Amino acid sequence: DSPEASPSVVFENIERCGPKLLEMLLESISGLVVDADFTVELIPEINVAVATFIKSIDTKEFVKKCSEHKRVREFKMTVRLLESTQTIKAENLPDSISTDYLAVYFENARNGGGPVSDVQLFPEENSAIITFCDHKGNT
C-alpha cells in the first residue's frame, strides 16, 4: 500500500454528536473550514461520519489530535483513517443504466476515476458494484 495517508477520516459512534456540532468540533480541532477545506458525509444507518479533506493536511496527526480531544472522548466517538478499497457501491442508479456506461463513467479522470476491472449491476436494487484495478481510482 502507498505510504500516503488517506484524505478521509472516519468518526464512529456519532449518535451523541449532531451534524452541526460535529462540523464545529472538526473545525475547532483542525483549524480548517467545513465546505472550503473539508466535507463531512453522515452515514446514519451505521452511526458514522466521514470527513474528507480537500486541503492537504496530515490526517494521521489529525486522527491523533481527535482521539485525544476532550469532547471527542466525552461523546465516546472513535476516529480512524478511512482504509483504501478497490470496490465501491453506486446506488440510486437509473433503470436504463448499463455496465458499459458505469465503467466509462468511473474510468473518467474528471470524475476521480481510474481503470475499472469489473462492474456488477443489480437492477432490482438500482445499484452496482464497481471494482477498480487499484485503490487510487475510487475517490
TrEMBL record:
<dbReference type="Pfam" id="PF23245">
    <property type="entry name" value="RRM_PARP14_2"/>
</dbReference>
<dbReference type="InterPro" id="IPR012677">
    <property type="entry name" value="Nucleotide-bd_a/b_plait_sf"/>
</dbReference>
<dbReference type="InterPro" id="IPR057050">
    <property type="entry name" value="RRM_PARP14_2"/>
</dbReference>
<dbReference type="Pfam" id="PF23085">
    <property type="entry name" value="RRM_PARP14_3"/>
</dbReference>
<protein>
    <submittedName>
        <fullName>PAR14 polymerase</fullName>
    </submittedName>
</protein>
<feature type="domain" description="PARP14 second RRM">
    <location>
        <begin position="5"/>
        <end position="83"/>
    </location>
</feature>
